[in-house]
Automatic annotation (TrEMBL):
This is Regulator. It comes from the Bacteria. InterPro entries: Anti-sigma-factor_SerPK, HATPase_C_sf, HATPase_dom. One of its GO terms (molecular function) is protein serine/threonine kinase activity. It comes from Streptomyces mutabilis.
Amino acid sequence: MDGRPAHFTVALAGDGPCIAQARHKAAAFLVQARAEHDPPVSQRATELTQLVVSELVTNARKYAPGPILMALRITGEAVEVSVWDSDPVLPVARAADVGRVGQHGLEIVMAVAQSFEARREPVGKRISVGVALLDTPGLGSAAA
């Protein structure tokens, strides 16, 4: 990278199309970051980033009224996805249950994440997830 940070922040309305908008903006951010800063970004990293964005924005939309803030930032060999919403309740990953229909989003995120952090903010909460930019074995080593 050329020393300038690659980052992007967007406010989402929290309505129906915001999940698709967030996915498209995440993919566009990675394309632009690669063009302007030249970090290596695998196709798998782009797809996993879109998956993480989709799950985090879906949860924010489902559990918190109002707008959602999404920030993306290249940090070394990862892209950090942060999603803020107005609900202060921190998410808790549920025990695996193949019979459960739905509510697997956090499990999915943690399975593909290089890092994971959930923290309360003065208003609401912020979930931050790191996704490796390169295809590397041993993903799923998220630290809470």
